[in-house]
Design brief:
The protein has 425 residues and is of the alpha+beta class. The chain is built from 7 helices and 28 strands. The strands form 8 sheets. A 6-stranded mixed beta sheet has the order 7-4-6-5-9-8, with no helix packed on it. Strands 16-13-17-21-20-18 form a 6-stranded mixed beta sheet, with helices on both faces. Strands 19, 22, 24, 25, 26 and 28 form a 6-stranded mixed beta sheet that branches. It starts with 18 loop residues before the first helix and ends in an 8-residue tail after the last strand.
Length: 425
């Protein structure tokens, strides 16, 4: 693996790093680490685009009919009286009218068909009456139509040279459709990022086994696997490590050789059995540890060889929040994407809450409506970072800056919906 990571070790001169400084360190030290490959269009959704795609020609390429009906030149039409026009032939989608229609004639046309030369307006077929006149058929066009009615213009979707998908974006079905409309059947995309997931702790056991007193089922690994997948990377669960320093160090060394990134939950704090940070120090370089946030303070970030190692707390809520705020943008950047900036929506609080000044906090919140129908935010009543129920019942996170000590009902607070992190609503 070829990594583009800064090796400058961050000097920990503060007990806890401010949130914005932590983000700046992460952003400065990561970039694409995966190769570029050619991907068939049908497999491109969800991949990170390696080069921008421009339309080689206008889309649509020609003026065409928006409805089934009768095309005619507006110059031959009286808007107050309508018109009686001889039908000169027909134009079907994929089968254009083969010649220039005679002056004063109409052409039977079908949705998507190229507009015949000189014709600029279409009357819907249900509004037109056709009647035989001698050897021909006359279209009786009703009055009231505007010039250009029911006509789609060449280039109204995009013009030649317009960028329809930019390098670094994660392709959605919408961009795939645009690339197909531009004639592309393959795209240059970054190869999927490979991410290892490791859980630590003597108390952690796999779900599925018999419950044992003093043990806790591992909720972090499957949650992280889903979050990694939602971020566009490929997750591999390497299992659970006991609280033994030599085993943690050996496992991280092995994982760093095979994966672009390693995410470890648990063992990130300062206790005697917390070995992740010490293992990063022994094997590579640590760039940050201890962030002034709640939940998630013990998060760490370092590098072992060409692999990024992200140490998360052990409590599921802290893992979830740290992933959304810090890990997801790191993985996106490593995978070739642009550093994501989730949108924040100021909404009124429907609760009162105090907090400690000097740290940034992320509160789980549910979006609801007041009596007047306007949106309100309700904070989950309990703050425990082990309460998975608070994640299940929340619609997003409220972000409270360091200098705020109290939120009162009606105060505007910044709300980040989970959809801003690529998660379903």
């Amino acid at each position: 693996m070829t990594a583009r990571l800064s090796d400058d070790c961050f000097v920990l001169d503060k007990d806890r790093l401010p949130h914005r400084e932590a983000l700046a360190i992460l952003k400065a030290r990561v970039g694409p680490v995966v190769a570029v490959e050619t991907v068939a269009l049908a497999e491109a959704a969800g991949r990170f685009l390696a080069e921008s795609v421009a339309a080689p020609r206008p889309i649509p390429a020609h003026d065409n009919a928006a409805v089934d009906g009768y095309a005619f030149a507006f110059a031959a039409y009286d808007r107050d009286k309508g018109a009686r026009l001889e039908i000169a032939g027909e134009a079907r989608a994929g089968h254009p009218f083969s010649s220039v229609p005679p002056a004063g004639c109409a052409v039977r046309i079908f949705t998507g068909a190229v507009m015949p030369s000189g014709l600029d307006t279409v009357a819907m077929q249900e509004d037109v009456r056709a009647e035989r006149s001698g050897e021909g058929i006359i279209a009786i066009i009703p009055p009231g139509l505007k010039q250009g009615a029911n006509r789609r213009l060449a280039g109204e979707d995009c013009n030649a040279g317009d960028v329809i998908a930019r390098a670094g974006m994660r392709l959605r079905p919408q961009e795939v459709a645009a690339a197909a409309a531009a004639g592309r059947d393959i795209l240059s995309c970054y190869a999927p990022l490979k991410v290892a997931i490791v859980s630590t702790g003597d108390e952690i056991v796999r779900p599925g086994g018999a419950f044992e007193p003093g043990k806790v089922y591992d909720a972090n690994a499957p949650m992280l696997a889903g979050l990694v997948s939602a971020a566009g990377a490929r997750a591999t669960d390497l299992g659970i490590l006991p609280d033994r320093a030599e085993l943690v160090t050996a496992a991280l060394a092995d994982a760093a050789r095979d994966y672009h990134a390693v995410i470890v939950s648990g063992g990130a704090s300062q206790g005697a059995e917390d070995h992740v940070v010490r293992s990063i120090d022994a094997l590579g370089k640590r760039h940050l540890w201890q962030i002034a946030i709640k939940p998630g303070r013990p998060m760490s970030f370092g590098q072992i060889g060409d692999s990024v190692v992200l140490g998360l707390p052990g409590n599921p809520v802290a893992v979830f929040v740290c992933f959304l705020i810090y890990v997801r943008p790191v993985l996106t950047s490593l995978a070739g994407g642009k550093w994501p900036e989730p949108r924040r929506f100021p909404l009124p609080a429907a609760f009162a809450q105090t907090k400690k000044v000097g740290r940034r906090e992320f509160w789980r919140a549910k979006l609801t409506q007041g009596a007047d129908g306007r949106p309100l935010l309700v904070k989950f009543p309990r703050d425990g970072s082990g309460l998975i129920s608070s994640l299940r019942e929340a619609d997003g996170l409220i972000e409270i800056p360091e200098d705020v000590a109290e939120v009162k009902p009606g105060d505007p607070v910044d709300f980040i919906p989970f959809t801003e992190f690529g998660l379903p609503s």
